[in-house]
Sequence to fold (301 residues):
Amino acid sequence: MSQIRYVASRVIYLVIVAVAFALLAYVLATFGFIPKSVSPVVFYAAITVVFGVWLTNFLSGSVVRYLGPKIGNRANTAGNLIKFFGYIIIAITALSFFGLSPEVALAGGTFTGLIIGLGAQPLLSNFFAGVVLLLTGALKPGDEVRLVTSSIPYQPTTGLGYKFFSPDFINVGYRGLVQEVGLLYSTMIIETGLELKVPNQLILNSGIINYSSESGGEGKRQVRYEFNIRFDPEIVLQKAKEVLRDVEDVISVYISEQSDKEYYIVVVEFRSNTDKGWRYVKSEILKRMIKLQRELEGIAS
Fold:
């Protein structure tokens, strides 16, 4: 409640200051302190733009700070929407001081918009793509996604040729957690922990694999581990389930395929939306599978 009072008091303070500047411009114009060649309308429009932008940014930041603890990174989407509509209102209001109605302003800006658009095409394309992403919710803060596009250079690590015939194929692109969907760029934290800023136009033209989609069911990940065919598959599966029985996040253990003539692959599926972090769970599973392999090698020898 105290935060709401603070925001309300700051808004009232800003309105009072803006009105005071407007009255000052009117008084200066009335008593001839402003040259007649300079219309007071210019000052009114400038005051509207300056204080309007300040108010819009303040309200956007306040909303993000207020909603952040409740909905996390999704608060950034609400803040960006406030900026988008706020800037439109500021532009229309400022133009109205010059006697232009919103309809005339929009119509008159068509030709100018075409000229500017040719020079700022990448900027505008990213802007409108960001608006589409914000309004449609195709990409939201907190989503874990993979961007599948050839526009972002990505080279998977090469390996043995036979592995590329596996159904567990590599999706070319970057996977990460969406932090913010901005008006020009969107930010995601990729699997290496680095921050990746992607132009919105590229995202709009990309395929998006959403691992946290509500329609996709429970988030899952896999650990694939190879065992030599000299180890009995029944024994391997039994012992794997035994060594993993106290790992709560493990969902299933099964043999996926034979990778080549000498090895078959055991897949361990586990939940990826665990509070402990999926990297911790994956690490624990790998440690236990390595110990199991050494145990089996000891028995075989």
Summary: The chain has a mean pLDDT of 75. The longest strand covers residues 220-228.
